[in-house]
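HUMAN: Mind sharing a backbone?

ASSISTANT:
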Amino acid sequence: MPSFSLLLPRVHDLVHILPMKLNYSEPKIFTGGVDVTKWSKLSNSEKKKALSKSWYIYYSFRNPKTGKLQRQTNIKAGVNLYKDKKSRLHILNQLKKSLEYILSKGFNPYENNSSLASFIEQLLISENTSEKSNSKKPKTHLHLVEEDNTPFYPINKAFDLSLTIKSKVLNEVSYKNFEGRINRFKKWLNASNVNLNEDISIISKKIVIHYLNNVLQKSSARNRNNTRTDLSSLFQTLEDNEIIKDNFIKKINVLKSTPERHKTYTSKELKDIFRYLKQSDPILYLFVQFLSYNYLRPVEVCRLKIGDIDLIDKKISVRAKNKPVKIKIIPNILIEQLPDISKMNSTDYLFTPNKIGGTWVTKENNKRDYFSKQFKKVKDHFGLGKDYGLYSFRHTFITKLYREMAKTSTPFEAKSKLKLITGHATMDALELYLRDIDAVLPEDYSKLLK
């Protein structure tokens, strides 16, 4: 490696923005005959061919005899010892800026400057002397290029790292959904001729937006937004682990979407459904009681074990999504409907397909889907559409409870009491939920129109 190649990086610390002089051309980088901005679109053979060639910096200087710009000796600086694009380009970019600075400081290959190496040494000595003489003045260093210290990290390896970390912090259901979206993104990248062995930095904001638009066209704005959230979570993990510099997905906008919402049941519908369930499917009937009177979500009911039910103190331990175990009271209206569980195994699940209390070895999603399919038979029996589901029981009874509380309390008092029962983390979250299910309705305003 030429000696001046070792000195050029030191000059990088002295770089300032200076006007380009007319007696030399702007230094440029030769990258094996390919456009590195389109690196991700190149085939493996094209990349291999480009890396097999020497990469270097080239520039021209005006010959004082002919008055014409003449090509100077290429500067390689040992970059071709590196076998990957990122390392070569990182070093050459720094050297390019340093060379521009040296040229702006008066280096002329045709004058008796002895050599580029000696010129750099004299320049560094001069700059150091100047710094010492101005040591009492505030120092300002303006770098033209911010150094990228992130290591080379293949896309496959980066995604696997993030998935491994997420598997330790997400529950089974959330991780399964997260993993599915990430794997679909990988599949799309592969189908778009993006080499998953390339550095993670080649995935740009433009690429992610293109993928999100693809998701939007094939599904919905809601699914597109959920995909954006999971991809952002993945890239945030990579940023936190210093694999990438910035999680740019946070800057991608969220589209407006209409959330799906199950309708509430009328009093007659509730009465008919309960009567039917009690006779035809007692297990599903009790399952629905937990949704209705303990205000649990279907998957939370699926997680319940015999040991989670404390009938003496009338308490129940609930495992919520990505949260510690919560303790809720069991109202008497629900206790009265529970069978005797005192002799059952505390580690058994409360609900199984065939009986109350037993083993059920399957994933939580499968358990929830089983009860959803069982209730689909009930919906078909009563001719209820897709707007109704198991969640409708929770919405219906929260609405009913709030309206009863509001009869004898101020709205704030009613919501404060209700928040303790439903388990919403904040008052804002509860108020948003109540608005979404239309629990808060005005009184009859007919007299105001007369």
The chain has 16 helices and nine strands.
